[in-house]
Amino acid sequence: MLLALKQVTKVFNEGTIDEKVALRSINLTLAPGDFVTIIGSNGAGKSTMMNIISGRLFPDTGSVWINGKDVTSLREHERARYIGRVFQDPLAGTAPNMTIEENLALAYNRTKRRTLKFGVTKKRRDFFREALATLHLGLENRLTAKVGLLSGGERQALSLLMATFTKPDLLLLDEHTAALDPARAELVTELTKEIVEKYKLTTLMVTHNMEQALRLGNRLIMMDQGQIIFEASGNEKQSLTVERLLQEFQRIRGSQFASDRAVLG
User: Fold this and answer.
1) Which residue stretches, if any, does this entry annotate as coiled coil (predicted)?
2) Cα–Cα distance for residue pair 218/35, rounded to 1 Å
């Protein structure tokens, strides 16, 4: 297995009136090449799980394994060589006061041995230009432009490229199209599909949009109240509809799904 979560539990404000059980003994495995989409209402535990996988948070109990290595005690920067991540906020994944090529150099160096050498060589610049051309946004001709001048969709496309062009073992997408307008969201969704397929990246994607969750990937899981309550893969996933997902939630939980955003996309 490329990724394994084993009996992972996380509780916030334990022992207080504000105690919140975010994850309840989560077990999840991803084989190499899996593209798993995660759906769930607010508070289901989706982002907490992503933060525990990335090392931003540590589980109270349980363990996290990547490529057969127990990484539970490794901090976020120590897991960066294994993981690429794109966040919901287009501002989160890039440095606005640095140029496009400087941002790409930072991402490139993340997986290399620590060095004082930061300069962008001609060979590396050509590599960056070639990678940017795959986005079809003309950014390959704007290497020296400050990233803060880019639109939200352009920044998110750049963040996606920065997270993937070093071919990480695991790609985490945390509602990475939710803050974009519909046209830009569609662009980044299509880029995501192309890049994941091109590099055969093992991917975990959180989304509020059920239609997007059904459209992308080979597996789907639904979370609620810190638990994985439903999973579908292969032909079963391909035959699912938004209406069927809502029916499954009501059958399992005995209540309606809480988020209109998930239904409306």
Assistant:
1) none
2) 6
Backbone angles phi, psi at 34, to 5 degrees: -65, 140
Interacting residues of 42 by C-beta distance below 8 A, sequence separation 6+: 258, 259
Amino acid identity of residue 136, one-letter, is: H
Taking the model in full, what pTM does it have? 0.91
Degrees to nearest 5, angle at CA 79 with 49 and 178: 45
Q: What CATH class does 3-11+40-264 carry?
A: alpha beta
pLDDT, tens only, 168-213: 999 999 999 988 888 888 999 999 999 999 999 999 999 988 999 9
Q: Are 2 and 32 in contact (CB under 8 A)?
A: yes
Closest CA to 28 of 8, 45, 56, 11: 8
DSSP 8-state secondary structure symbol assigned to residue 216: S
Distance CA 147, CA 138 (A): 14
Residue from 147, 145, 143, 144 nearest 155 by CA: 147
pLDDT band, very low/low/confident/very high, at 216 (cuts 50, 70, 90) = very high
The H-or-E segment that residue 109 falls in is helix 100-109
Q: Which amino acid is at 106?
A: L
Least Cα distance to 209 among 41, 20, 6, 28 occurs for: 41
**What is residue 205's DSSP assignment?**
E
